[in-house]
Amino acid sequence: MSATVTVVVRTRNRPAMLTRALASIASQTFDDYEVVIVNDAGDEAEVREIVKKQKSAVRSKITIVTNEVSKGREAALESGLAASHNRYYAVHDDDDSWHPHFLKKTVASPDESPRGGRRRHPLRDHPRACACRWHPASRSSARSLSTDNSRPCPSWT
Questions:
Q1: Strand 133-136 relative to strand 143-146: parallel, antiparallel, unpaired?
Q2: Which pLDDT value is given to residue 110?
């Protein structure tokens, strides 16, 4: 699957939160994404059952990576990135929630930058908002979206 953005979802034995996170991702108005769920040593059958309940349009975008032994948050992210070959990635942990226009607005920002996304996202200045910024990813061909996305940006509500 080739998409503009890989959304990496890290989870471990939190089915209600994973269900909510997938609903948040599915509600995005920007739909050129794939989802890599990194199950960090959690119940694999439970994750598969949650994915199975998603609408087919969303389900077709999901890849599950299971770590047999918990490796921690950063190693789980690296596992998710290893399953992707896309231009950008965003981290959407199982306890996160995004405004429906989050990816659309965020992807547009670095693409408009003459330096290829190395400037701060305009929403960075909103106190207690998305706190978005693009920076080089650990893989040289990707860029990461670093967020504190527990609250929606006030300009989007």
A1: antiparallel
A2: 63
Of 39, 121, 125, the C-alpha closest to 88 is 121
What tens digit of pLDDT does each residue of 9-57 get? 999 999 999 999 999 999 999 999 999 999 999 999 999 999 999 999 9
CB atoms < 10 A from the CB of 14, how many? 16
Q: Which two tokens stand for residue 36?
A: 């890599």
> Residue 131: which of 116, 111, 146 has the closest Cα?
146
Confirm if 25 and 43 have CB atoms less than 8 A apart: no
Task: Identify residue 123 by its one-letter amino acid code.
Answer: L
Mean pLDDT of the region 62-75: 95
